[in-house]
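Attaching the record inline, Q. Sequence:
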Amino acid sequence: MDHLPSRATTPAAAPRPAAGPTAPVGLDALAYGGDYNPEQWPEEVWPEDVRLMREAGVTMVSVGIFSWSLLETERGRYEFGWLDRLLDLLHEAGIRVDLGTPTVVPPAWFYREHPEALPVSREGVRYEFGGRGAICHSSPAYRAAAAGITEQLALRYADHPALALWHVHNEYGVPVSACYCEESAAHFRRWLAARHTTVKELNAAWGTPFWGQHYNRWEDIRPPRLTPTACNPAQQLDWARFTSDAMLENFRSERDILHRLAPGVPVTTNFMTALSQCESVDYWAWGREVDLVSNDHYLVAEAERNHVNLAMSADLTRSVAGGKPWLLLEHSTGAVNWQPRNLAKRPGELARNSLAHVARGSEGAMFFQWRASRYGTEKFHSAMLPHAGTDSRIWREVVALGSDLTSLAGIRDSRVVADAAVLWDWQSWWAQKLEWRPSVELDARERADAWYAAGYDRHLTLDFAHPEADLTGYPLVLVPALYLMTEAAGQNLRRYVEGGGTLVVSYFSGIVDEHDTVHAGPHPGALRDVLGLTIEEFAPLRAGQSVRLTGAAGDLTADGWAEWVVPQGAGTLWTYADGPTAGHPAVTRHALGTGSAWYVSSRLDAAGLDTVLARAAAEAGLPERELPRDVEVVERAGELGRYLFVINHTDEDAVVPLPGDGVELLTGSAVRGALDVPGNSTRVVHL
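Structure, as predicted:
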């Protein structure tokens, strides 16, 4: 019997309503400021805060994100007086407001009334109130309460002269995204019915004949809770999609209220696109739903060259925004407080980090938070106004950065000029991370990091793209990890190569379809034709085992993974010299149409990957840039001209050739032919 409970839900593919403006209203400068939590301080401190904000050059602050309990003190009892006074104070000082809907932390009274709205872990443990983000996103009570406080805020502040931007919720998916309670189970079944239509179609998509998992009724389907062995991977993949969509339904609900009651004010929510910080949200889908894409980014403090991950996150955020300007809504002035070792930023690093985001498309630099907290879990998190006060290095750097951003106001609404694209898909990442893959060394994020770093070290500015996106205009497209690939994506890549593009694909890509079902025929199913090869068998390597690849351009070294590659039209560039696949092709190139598709079948080390990408980039016609390592050069172009950002992450001074003459905006100096960039500093040239 194919029966579904009748309760309705917003479909995951609900049409997008008319969007609002895409830039903060009334902000005629780059956004500079941070989360302002005045409720943590006596009201007599507020005027001093505002005075110091003006000294620092602050143009916008985020307010009210965690304030639900103070705005709605009991159900239906609202206390807006303090927020009225605060917004009036900020407006008088000329500071714009990014006003939050405080729905990331419902008040204690809400959980007293609705304890069932607390989320349940996969192990069946219900979380308690006392942190943040303890939300079952399928809870009708939560949805109604969130809509209620959002409506009250919109009714009261839609016309407030300080209002520049609406900030819905906070960091969806952090720290809890999925809830495994019975309400979520019922919501999951409704979502599945909308996606698969019938139980018969769901059985086909999930491959339920395996291990006797066939379903006759929707009511028999549960979330992928803890099982004694690996759970159905297609079920887990759909659950990951559902989890992202359930949160997105809540965002849409609040956004639509704000659009209706406060038209003309853009709506955002702060993403966390860094692949180390939020894994549960499909930002390709979410990017289409916000008026302005915004992002939070926090360095992995202990990581060597963590500025590369910063650049990667900024490029990914810009790509989610469709290449349009976006906004860095949070990062840190110094150390955070939640990593194993919270390293402080070195002198000058605050400005370099901020301007690196601006170089890659952000329309400003915002921080968490304005004034350092004295209590709570984030009291050791850095702030614009630190515990040390205004007689401190951080404060002096904050003031200097405010001045620098004022000098860069002309870059607003300009676009980043990219050289090449990297394909990335959150859903493929989710699928590859599931249990029982051929090797624990198959790590999509590790490959994405490695391939991005290789492009960064060749001084390429990289966009990211969905596998089914239009790739026209990119001379080079990199595929570091795309285990899940639809037939449509495969055809898209074939058209790209036939049209003259250069495609470089890493191993274990094109293996399964959108249901985590292996494509029919030999691997790599969706990529066989474009790559001109088949893979007879995977050959994972032992821990610590490496292999040597030999070719006309010299030997390469790899580890972790190998494959028995059988060319079907592709030529061999490097061959395995040893290991289980000795004598077989390792790196191939397939000429197709007027382009070419390269395949790398093992995990090359950094030097080997650079060798391969150098040859592919040269074939794609990309220039070889003679620049020092860790000196990044990024161009933004707009109606007022070209802006070249040069960021020196090294201790050594650098000289960078320029494509023309111009003015260095941070110093006001004229420059001709070349630019001197001191160590650990940034320069911006208006060409």
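Residues 631-686 form a domain with the Immunoglobulin-like fold (CATH 2.60.40.1180). The chain has a mean pLDDT of 96.

More tomorrow.
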